[in-house]
Predict the structure.
Amino acid sequence: MEAKCHLRYQRYGRRKVAQLLDQVRGKSIYEAQYLLASLPRIATGIVDKAIKSAGANLSVKLGRKLDLKSVWVTAASADQGPMKMLKRVQPGPQGRAMPFKRKMCHINVVVSDTKERK
């Protein structure tokens, strides 16, 4: 059985989050948490949160507590979110005010109790 987690509008760049998701895809939740704890990236906290949430969703779906070593991250992706204009400005040329943009991403994680995705 599969369970999903969608985190939307996270204030991290898509590419930086996708690099972390590439590392944990195909591993068990236990291995993924251990790996994320040792990586020196700022977005590891939010990726860890998404993986734990997907595992909890699967536990609720099955109606029993699961061993983290038997739950696998079958799919993980990061999509580009809106380039939101924040209510801040940066100085521009000739005294103009340029809007301050922030990158955002949407994180999708799918976990399963079997190693392969159906």
About this structure: The helical segments are 14-24, 29-38, 44-62.
